[in-house]
Write a structure and sequence with these properties.
Length: 273
C-alpha cells in the first residue's frame, strides 16, 4: 500500500501562552487516576511540592516538568506543551519521514514488516494513517475495498469501519467497531484533532448491535478480528508495537499493528499449507 503521512497537530506557544503548567499537570494526573501522594512517591518529591506546582504556588524546573511528565506517561508531543506552558523550550523535535536522519527508523519498519510475513502487519502514525504495510495486509484487508478509501493517506480505522471498506466482511463487526471507537474516543479526549475522525466513524452504519461496554464471555481471552475472505472466515489477534526509545515526535508516534492467526485453520491458510 502506498505510504501516506499526515503531520500531527503542532504545539505552538500561542496555544499555551494563557495556560500555566500546573493545571495541565493536574489534568494529566487526574486522567491517569493518580493521587498527588502517589505522584510524589513516583517522582521522589513531597506531596506538598506537587500540590504547590499544580496550584501555581511553585514554579517547577525544566527537569521537574519532564520528571512528572515521565511518571504520568505523557506523550512526547504533550510534554512539549507542558514545557512551553512552564516557559521552557521544547525538547522533542519532529523530522519528516523523508528526512535522511529518519532512514534507520524506516529501515526498522521495513524489517518488521518483512519479518512478519506471512501474517498481515501495518505501520501507522498517531492518526492511524498508513505509513507502510506488508503484502499479506494489502491482499487480505483491502479485498473489495472502494478505491476512494485506498487513496493516501489511508486511514486504518476508516478502512475497517466504512461500509465501502472492510466492514461488510467483518463477521463480528459490532464488537470490533465498539473496540475501535472506544479507543478512539479515549484518544480524542486527549487530542481534539481526532474528534472529527471519531464523529465521522460514529456516523457509519452498522447492522449489528454495538455493545456499550466490552464485556468478555466466560471463556474469552482476547477479542479476535473475524474476517470473511472468500468462502473462509479468518480469525486474527492484533498486537501493537511502538518505538519505546524514540527521541523524535514522528518516530515516537509510529504504531505497528501486527495480526496473528487466532486458530489453526487461519494459520494453515496463511502459511499456504
Amino acid at each position: 500500500m502506498g505510504a501516506g503521512h499526515r503531520e500531527g497537530a503542532k504545539v505552538t506557544a500561542e496555544a499555551v501562552e494563557r495556560t500555566q503548567v500546573g493545571p495541565l499537570l493536574a489534568q494529566w494526573r487526574r486522567r491517569r487516576g493518580v493521587s498527588q501522594l502517589e505522584l510524589s512517591h513516583l517522582a521522589g518529591v513531597s506531596a506538598r511540592h506537587v500540590g504547590f506546582v499544580e496550584t501555581g504556588r511553585s514554579q517547577p524546573s525544566r527537569e521537574m516538568v519532564l520528571r512528572l511528565a515521565e511518571h504520568l506517561d505523557v506523550p512526547p508531543r504533550e510534554r512539549n506543551a507542558l514545557l512551553l506552558a512552564a516557559g521552557y523550550a521544547p525538547v522533542y523535535h519532529e523530522k519528516p519521514l523523508d528526512d535522511p536522519a529518519m532512514r534507520p527508523v524506516l529501515d526498522a519498519v521495513r524489517r518488521v514488516l518483512r519479518g512478519h510475513h506471512p501474517y498481515p502487519a501495518v505501520v501507522m502514525d498517531g492518526r492511524r494513517d498508513v505509513i507502510a504495510s506488508n503484502e499479506p495486509f494489502d491482499r487480505l484487508f483491502t479485498e473489495g475495498v472502494a478505491a476512494h478509501l485506498l487513496r493516501p493517506p489511508v486511514n486504518v480505522l476508516r478502512l475497517a469501519l466504512h461500509p465501502d471498506g472492510m466492514a461488510p466482511r467483518i463477521v463480528n463487526l459490532g464488537r470490533w467497531r465498539g473496540k475501535l471507537l472506544t479507543g478512539l474516543a479515549r484518544r480524542s479526549a486527549l487530542d481534539g484533532n481526532l474528534r472529527p475522525l471519531y464523529e465521522e466513524l460514529l456516523g457509519y452504519p452498522c447492522e449489528q448491535p454495538v455493545p456499550e461496554a466490552d464485556i468478555p464471555g466466560p471463556d474469552e481471552i482476547m477479542l479476535p478480528l473475524e474476517l470473511r475472505c472468500g468462502e473462509r472466515v479468518l480469525s486474527f489477534l492484533a498486537t501493537f508495537t511502538t518505538f519505546g526509545t524514540a527521541r523524535d515526535l514522528t518516530s515516537s508516534e509510529l504504531i505497528i499493528e501486527s495480526f496473528f492467526p487466532a486458530d489453526d485453520d487461519t494459520a494453515a491458510y496463511l502459511s499456504g499449507s
